[in-house]
């Protein structure tokens, strides 16, 4: 059905937020096309009247009281961050 | 004195209870074995100091008459389980140096029952692979060799766990299985691997790959050991809303060995073209063994088997692309950022540098099949086919108590084989993936024998 071109791969890479070089795009286009070809055979399966199966866990998601169950662990939350300042995560400038 | 690393989990448990040796002695013996087998690269992080501390504490606990189900038994932990204060990498560069501030539920259960941690076992990056060659921390070598002495892959993704148990570097190990990651490496290394039914073990604190499929399980030397260890890992957990709210039975007590009158199904679709003779021969021998033990063997059909791999390689990457969005270079893990970079630049550089090739491919395939215009054709279609596969198993289990299949279409292959073409590697999961998608607790493999090459199957 689909052979992915370089521009499509560029778009997917951006949606995935992964930097890919120009040469990388061509290689990926080949790899991803191979994978899509491989899954193509699903199209021949008759799924008329079939409900999608998202999970085999035959459960209704349990509810609990809307209350605070933990907290006051600022140091723990920040302990693995690459950059922090004054008890906050530091991000690049996002507003001019 | 007997070599303490050769013991099974059950033997070691009983020996400790009788006072034949201490947990400190047992742990020291395994740490020595880890030194001797470092060439296999089964561990990413060894934790000898923590192990000795835990062993001493365990001996003290036992002296007070307070021994748990896994008391004093040294094990390896797949480096996908978050362990408090101990680096947890998922075999990825992006998590290098990450030290969780919390303990996963499964390891917390095991340690609560007295288990001693020897270290964090190697795996394929983010558990994506069937050969343990995608680890950022180097590939794992199978302790078994082929006839010519060539190095083999241990299978994956739980390759480090399997190699550690097979080479007596741990009495047992935890693994996780999404599409075969416990069963296939257990097969390749000649040990027992058990993927429990989805929901049996809590997923809380396990680095997520594909949440509707991920499940933790034991990797051990014997079936009895698997029963003991699973009993300690399992249980309902309020922190995982998909964990099953049902009581954990005594798995070990259930090992009666009596299978008289049980109906065992043999799915004809698993006789694939080009299956090596040694695999089909072992399968036939397995059938004969069950029949001799009094089971009734019947043919069953799982007509959608050939679509399981395609379904899996849409569903799993889709879920992975969402789960792995959390690696953003902000809250934990590696960050790559240059002067003047925007937030997007930082995301894109960090993720490009942090994720390996296979992980990047799967994130992108997952992103594509979930993207506008393709969602119905790929993702939704795959979920519907997954329903068909589920119905196949429902039908089969209407007739039989269990199904017997080979784990993989070949024995362990050489390191470097099946690389270069992602699809070729995926084909290895052909027998393990269907049961993952339909999730029936049939997915146990036991040591069946060895091939002509004296490799484990």
From TrEMBL, chain A:
Whether Transferase counts among this entry's keywords is yes
Tell me the superkingdom of the source.
Answer: Bacteria
Q: Which GO terms describe its biological process?
A: glutaminyl-tRNAGln biosynthesis via transamidation; regulation of translational fidelity; translation
The record's section on Gene3D superfamilies has: Glu-tRNAGln amidotransferase C subunit, N-terminal domain
Sorted UniProt keywords: ATP-binding, Ligase, Nucleotide-binding, Protein biosynthesis, Transferase
For molecular function, the Gene Ontology terms on record are: ATP binding; glutaminyl-tRNA synthase (glutamine-hydrolyzing) activity; transferase activity
Cross-referenced HAMAP family, in alphabetical order? GatC
Q: Which family does it belong to?
A: Belongs to the GatC family.
Q: How does it assemble?
A: Heterotrimer of A, B and C subunits.
* Protein name, entry field: Aspartyl/glutamyl-tRNA(Asn/Gln) amidotransferase subunit C
The protein's organism comes out as: Thalassospira povalilytica
Q: Which gene encodes it?
A: gatC
